[in-house]
Amino acid sequence: MSEPVLSVRNLRTQFKTRAGTLNAVDGVSFEVGRGRILGLVGESGSGKSVTGYSILGLIEPPGMIADGEVLLNGRDLTRLKGDELRRVRGAQLAMVFQDPMMTLNPVLKIGTQMIAAVRAHDNVSRRAARVRAREALAKVGIPSPEERLDAYPHQLSGGMRQRVAIAIALLHRPAVIIADEPTTALDVSIQGQILAEVRRLADETGTAFVWVTHDLAVVSSLADDICVMYAGRVVETGPAAEVIAAPRHPYTAGLLASVPAEHEPGERLPQVPGSAPSLANLPPGCAFAPRCFRAGPACTATPPVQRFADGRSALCHYPIETDSCQPPSSTSTTFRSAS
């Protein structure tokens, strides 16, 4: 992997509630290199979106970042406040939301909003800002970009609005873009077009993406690397193709087994039993143990991070590619990948 532009280290985000302090993000670590796409995958409530908001410093009370570092080109964003952080957002670090109308003002023309976004960080003329806005729209595959600058958001389709949101995120050629399920509400054909554009943009511009999603089909066609999250923790990491082909954490295996495309029409889909636990009432040890087909006596203790010889890792006492369901040796947590 290339030199990381974004390094998240032991990130912990907490929320104060009547039920107590909840660790929505609990010791999350990962890296993203230049031009790479990291898929951050998990069920609703797994902590993946909160991780994205934490990276951008968008957590407000009763939430707080309690521990960890978010290094953007070596600079710790968790130490930045106020105007200093706002200068980084948009210019070096941007976000694309699931609903493009969270990005777009419905009463302002597209061009007006994009010009304002350019001039918020760069001291350029309106004409120069409009040229950059037009180029950004063209870059994400929007036809007749000059005309679109004079359109209002409601005059564009959902897919077109999402492309505009991505174009706005690209205006300052940021090092990293966080995308929070931006294609979930779109038709499959439009989704495929946008995913292809994002892959091309990452390759051509060198911008790194953290793609937050629950959809493994999206990740398999888009991401270079995967982080699977469960109950606020990363439970498996590795190259996307390898994780999809041979998952090592039972939770990842359960998610993959329930993908409809992997089964014949009319066949009953397997599913991960039960439901995700409440963060206010996590089971002792491994949070996934009550739902896990490989759970054993050791699972009442916090699982170790098992690091494999191929660079992959799994937060599990009994990772799938060990020879049996017996606990791994206490003297070593490094395993050879299966041949």
Automatic annotation (TrEMBL):
One of its GO terms (cellular component) is plasma membrane. Pfam families: ABC_tran (PF00005), oligo_HPY (PF08352). InterPro entries: AAA+_ATPase, ABC_Ni/Peptide_Import, ABC_transporter-like_ATP-bd, ABC_transporter-like_CS, Oligopep_ABC_C, P-loop_NTPase. It comes from the Bacteria. Residues 6-256 form the ABC transporter domain. Belongs to the ABC transporter superfamily. It is a peripheral membrane protein. GO terms for molecular function: ATP binding; ATP hydrolysis activity. SMART domains: AAA. This is ATP-binding cassette domain-containing protein. Its main location: membrane. The keyword ATP-binding applies. CDD domains: ABC_NikE_OppD_transporters. Keywords: ATP-binding, Cell membrane, Membrane, Nucleotide-binding, Transport. It is found in: Cell inner membrane. The keyword Manganese does not apply. GO terms for biological process: peptide transport; transmembrane transport.
